[in-house]
Design brief:
Layout: H1 5-20, H2 33-44, E1 49-51, E2 54-57, E3 61-64, E4 68-74, E5 84-91, E6 98-103, E7 111-117, E8 123-131, E9 136-147
Parallel strand pairs: 1-9, 3-9
Antiparallel strand pairs: 2-4, 4-7, 5-6, 5-8, 8-9
């Protein structure tokens, strides 16, 4: 079939339009408990999670989920032989389950992180510490949020 001018313009216009359509990747608007467990396993692997040594200071009732103060600290002498390598913070229902990863060394002084986070809804927040002996310690807290954050509409 011979290529006519009209056919050529239709094909060229279609290719131009197809090139301007963005590729959209769909993902859930909220993390799920399964996504939380997967994110935790990506950090700790098959290691056993122990309770204790980690302190999570976060209000149990939050009026506004846009700025939630949080402090995570780990009891450790922070010597060359016994120190905290990292602290990882996870949540259950935000669009991404991993809030943050913080890394330390023996000369860090103390293993403590203070920051503000956003919480999409009432949910569980988990803090995990990795020590120099490659043990993992965790603490979890259930936070009630009255005004949710992370709810912007996607355009």
């Amino acid at each position: 079939m011979p290529t006519t001018r009209r056919r050529f313009l239709n094909l060229a216009g279609g290719a131009t339009i197809a090139g301007t359509i963005p590729i959209v990747t769909l993902r859930p608007l909220q993390a799920t408990p399964a996504m939380l467990n997967t994110a935790i396993r990506n950090v700790v692997g098959e290691a056993q999670l122990r309770s204790g040594r980690v302190k999570l200071d976060i209000p149990p009732l939050v009026e506004n989920g846009n700025t939630v103060p949080m402090t995570v600290g780990v009891t450790s002498p922070m010597t060359a032989d016994d120190y905290v390598k990292s602290i990882h913070v996870f949540n259950e229902k935000n669009p991404q389950p991993n809030i943050g990863n913080f890394y330390f060394g023996p000369s860090s002084g103390r293993a403590q992180v203070s920051t503000r986070i956003r919480l999409a809804d009432t949910q569980k927040v988990v803090a995990i510490a990795r020590l120099s002996d490659d043990t993992f310690w965790q603490v979890a807290a259930e936070i009630v949020v009255t005004l949710a954050a992370c709810t912007e509409e996607l355009n």
